[in-house]
């Protein structure tokens, strides 16, 4: 363990010398882009597992299946289900939310979501290879989030 620390020490010195900056915007404006493979959304600001405000530290994050809440300029909110994707917060205060699939929650069908979950669970029960099991587990995670979002 001590030899590993000695080996990595020069790398840590390099990291300490780097300055950490925040996403700077003129005033408190941020530019949001929220898109799925099927649709682009107008987004003044949003929150999901975390919210993004001006001067947020630049970040790259993975979206897990669930609901993203979009806050409109008029004070209303729109809830959008995302299956997965990424969030990138840049130093220039631009934010990109890129989802594999994104659908307004009001368009979800709870009965269809439950059917998808049931099929994914059957797929897991009949999976023979590790890859098939992993794919089924991912399908179950997305389907469970879909059922919860559509309730």
From TrEMBL:
Residue ranges occupied by any F1F0-ATP synthase delta subunit C-terminal domain in the UniProt entry: 108-149
Principal subcellular localisation of the protein: mitochondrion
One annotated GO molecular function: proton-transporting ATP synthase activity, rotational mechanism
Localization in the cell: Mitochondrion inner membrane
Gene Ontology cellular component annotations, sorted alphabetically: mitochondrial inner membrane; proton-transporting ATP synthase complex
Pfam families per the UniProt record, alphabetical: ATP-synt_DE_N, ATPD_C_metazoa
Keywords per UniProt: Acetylation, ATP synthesis, CF(1), Hydrogen ion transport, Ion transport, Membrane, Mitochondrion, Mitochondrion inner membrane, Transit peptide, Transport
Boundaries of every ATP synthase F1 complex delta/epsilon subunit N-terminal domain copy: 39-102
InterPro entries referenced in this protein's UniProt entry, alphabetically: ATP_F1_dsu/esu_C_sf (IPR036794), ATP_synth_F1_dsu/esu (IPR001469), ATP_synth_F1_dsu/esu_N (IPR020546), ATPD_C_metazoa (IPR048937), ATPsynth_dsu/esu_N (IPR036771)
CDD domains, alphabetized: F1-ATPase_delta
Gene3D superfamilies hit by this protein: ATP synthase delta/epsilon subunit, C-terminal domain, F0F1 ATP synthase delta/epsilon subunit, N-terminal
HAMAP family on file: ATP_synth_epsil_bac
Subunit annotation: Component of the ATP synthase complex composed at least of ATP5F1A/subunit alpha, ATP5F1B/subunit beta, ATP5MC1/subunit c (homooctomer), MT-ATP6/subunit a, MT-ATP8/subunit 8, ATP5ME/subunit e, ATP5MF/subunit f, ATP5MG/subunit g, ATP5MK/subunit k, ATP5MJ/subunit j, ATP5F1C/subunit gamma, ATP5F1D/subunit delta, ATP5F1E/subunit epsilon, ATP5PF/subunit F6, ATP5PB/subunit b, ATP5PD/subunit d, ATP5PO/subunit OSCP.
Function description: Subunit delta, of the mitochondrial membrane ATP synthase complex (F(1)F(0) ATP synthase or Complex V) that produces ATP from ADP in the presence of a proton gradient across the membrane which is generated by electron transport complexes of the respiratory chain. ATP synthase complex consist of a soluble F(1) head domain - the catalytic core - and a membrane F(1) domain - the membrane proton channel. These two domains are linked by a central stalk rotating inside the F(1) region and a stationary peripheral stalk.
Family: Belongs to the ATPase epsilon chain family.
Entry protein name: ATP synthase F(1) complex subunit delta, mitochondrial
């Amino acid at each position: 363990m001590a030899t590993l620390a000695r080996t990595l020490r020069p790398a840590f010195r390099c990291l300490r010398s780097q300055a950490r900056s925040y996403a700077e915007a003129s005033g408190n404006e941020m530019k949001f882009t929220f898109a799925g493979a099927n649709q682009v959304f107008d987004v003044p600001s949003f929150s999901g597992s975390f919210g993004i405000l001006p001067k947020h530290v630049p970040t790259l994050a993975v979206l897990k299946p669930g609901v993203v809440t979009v806050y409109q300029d008029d004070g209303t909110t729109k809830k959008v289900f995302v299956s997965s994707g990424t969030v990138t917060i840049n130093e220039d205060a631009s934010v990109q939310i890129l989802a594999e699939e994104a659908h307004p929650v009001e368009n979800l069908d709870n009965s269809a979501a439950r059917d998808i979950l049931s099929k994914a669970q059957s797929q897991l029960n009949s999976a023979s290879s590790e890859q098939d099991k992993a794919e089924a587990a991912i399908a179950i995670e997305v389907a469970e989030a879909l059922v919860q979002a559509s309730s």
